[in-house]
Amino acid sequence: MSTTRIYTLPVEQTGWQVPSGATTAFDWDYDDGRDRLLSLYEKGKRKQWNASDRINWSLSVNLDNPMRAPDESVPIYGSRTWEALDDRGKGVVRRHLSAWQFSQFLHGEQGALICASKIVQTVPEVDSKFYAATQVMDEARHVESYSRYLHEKLELAYPINPHLKALLNDVISDSRWDMTYLGMQVLIEGLALAAFGLIRDLAQDPLAQSINAYVMQDEARHVAFGRLALRDAYRELTRRERDEREEFCVEACYLMRDRFLAEEVWRTLDLDADESIRFVKESETFLQFRNLLFSRIVPTLRDIGLFGPKITAAFEDMGVLGYQAVDVDELMQNDDRIADGIDAERRAQVEHTIAAGAGD
Question: What pLDDT was estimated at residue 198?
Fold first, then answer.
């Protein structure tokens, strides 16, 4: 099925190529490696899964509320625009909002796929190349999963958000290997993890819930990979190099914060976009949601040693500085437990169906 059929804008208008002058690094020292990175590589190999089998694609989706989430999760809930809609109109908003969210996940995962392959090429240590190779497969599986969900279930997709596009452009076009790590592994995937988690925990629809839970299980390892690699490398930075990377993080965090206004949805549906955007920006509920998205980025930047005055001031301005005390390892272990629990429940249902069929 062609994606052109379900996009809100023609792909001819949104095509994109990014020049990248990366240097390929070979490492002939195959025996030496950092134990924690090699352990992560082993875990990455063991945790590979097949999206065709692990996800129950036979489940139907209610297009009026694809995630079966409460109305309070709709950014314009409580606005005059929302209250003026009838039930059918509210269903259209929910479907478009879900399509927009999953489309951005899809585009971000393709960016991660490209960045992971670039890390294999550019990172100097062979143990990092090993792990990044497992991530390439992970990201391909994520692109497959989100694309299939949009095509088969929602039959609707949105182009890449301009803020995400701008950040991906900076990350992909930068030739330095550590900037690929920093932009993708720490910032983009850290934010994505929090967004996936909100859907996983709010959605009552089992398909949306399971897709995000399984993707999160992989992404938590990817963020851990970035932390381990950068923690060592950033001890050797000069003051100028550190300042440059902190400036990048500050700009990226503001870009990502503004990404979640869903402006494209309001304009596509002609829902008084300016009023809707103004309402979202001033909504206390949305402010709390947006702040929560930084719950993984803040402690990770602190952990890798990028937490100077500029980053501290930016996070204080955003109201997210308190997340610096979050235990990211504990969050990752919880992501693992939840995904395995959902998977165990799925297997139990399959076994029950098989047993019931055998008894007929």
Answer: 85
